[in-house]
Design brief:
heterodimer; A: 308 residues; mainly alpha; 1% strand; globular; B: 158 residues; alpha/beta; 2 domains; 4-stranded mixed β-sheet; 3-stranded mixed β-sheet
Chain lengths: 308, 158
Amino acid sequence: MRSWRSVAEFESFLDGGGIVEPVDDMPGEYRDHVFRFIELHANSELMGGLTERDWIPKAPGLRRKMAVLAKTQDEIGHAHLLYMVAADLGVKTRTEMLEDLFANRSRFHNVFHYQAVTWGDQVAIAYLVDAGALISQQAVLKNCSYGPYKRILRRIVAEEGFHMRHGEEMLLVFAQGTEVQRELFQAALDRWWWPTLHMFGPPSRADDPLLRWHIKSERNEDLRDKFVQKYAPLLTGYGFVPPDPDLHRDPDTGRWFTGEIDWAPLKATFSNLGPDSARRVGDAARHWRDTSWVRDALETIATRPAAA
Amino acid sequence: MSAHLEATPTLNSEVGEALRRVDDPEYPGVSIVDLGLVAAVRIDGRCVEVDLIPTFSGCPALAMIAADVSSALGQLESVDDVEVRFVATPVWSPARITPAARRTMAEHFTVAVSSIGRPTRCPRCRATALVEESMFGPVRCRSIHRCRTCGERVEVIR
């Protein structure tokens, strides 16, 4: 176990690329921030996995079903690992985290507060949301100061890269598809473009503790810009139109600019008041209650006195 | 297992080199050859046939791996035609993973590979103190363990 005499000393350890391990005597504020960040990630993987799962029976064809199944398992598996790592920080137990999530006492990413209406939405999610998540996670991985999270992120980023390839492949099918397919994706893009831009978060404060503690390494607006610079030209190149009349490319610099972003829909999701929040949380809570017999049975087996 | 692969003469050829550059989509930096996914390679003039074995049937990466193999071999001057097949035998097992790939997986991904008759070591602290926490990890070929010595959450390829 390592300890630091002052927060300033701890910060210079982090600034020098130091990696914190669970056994270290880290400052309480750092522990809380790392915990909340990982809890948010875990909640989002779980809520994302449950949403993905809804599409297993509806996915068109065996290959897509296999991909949706695999994505569901990936996301639930990531949630599983992340809840373990979060619980190891000793702030909340895994059960407390889940109960807080189902009782609207904690948060998950904004993109899981919306309904996926058609298969086109699933394509938009795989193509845009997965790509956005990957950009954010790669940035965290680059300079993350908390060891166990950094090591799990390496695997998550590799697996998300795989999801993204799947999203790209599906998008190509729709982009080169029939008029009906193109309309289906355009309608989905209308629904998912802004939530995807919101996903990176509101502009970072200059004193953002997540940046100061090397939990994140890039400002929210820089990550969002990275996404826009890559996806605005791709989408428009395929002939799709993001629902932003002010989106344009500066002819001199070649850079893309979005119109002004309305933050109200994002803020609503912070209090679980997004368009589909109540149903999503309600469904997840019901699954948790419906499966309590499995946990009870495992508990009974684990605590049962050994047969004589 | 690497011995078996070296014994396949074609893997020393240009085709073999190209196959070694095809990474598993979920482990960038680890080639499908080192994971033991290549069962056989047959070269007939300018046609190449590759037999691959899936780690698990229904592995969602199969189509992507097949596409990557076709594209890697298709780029070779000496190759006109590539045929990729998935075969049911031999059955894949973690024993097919080469020592080099095991090292990369431990160091880069904190993933351990189980071996028959030997306890699995924690990829971080090398202790043989892994306790299974869940049979189900993020992918079908991995389970989740905890190291009793260093506390790390480790995934094990089984």
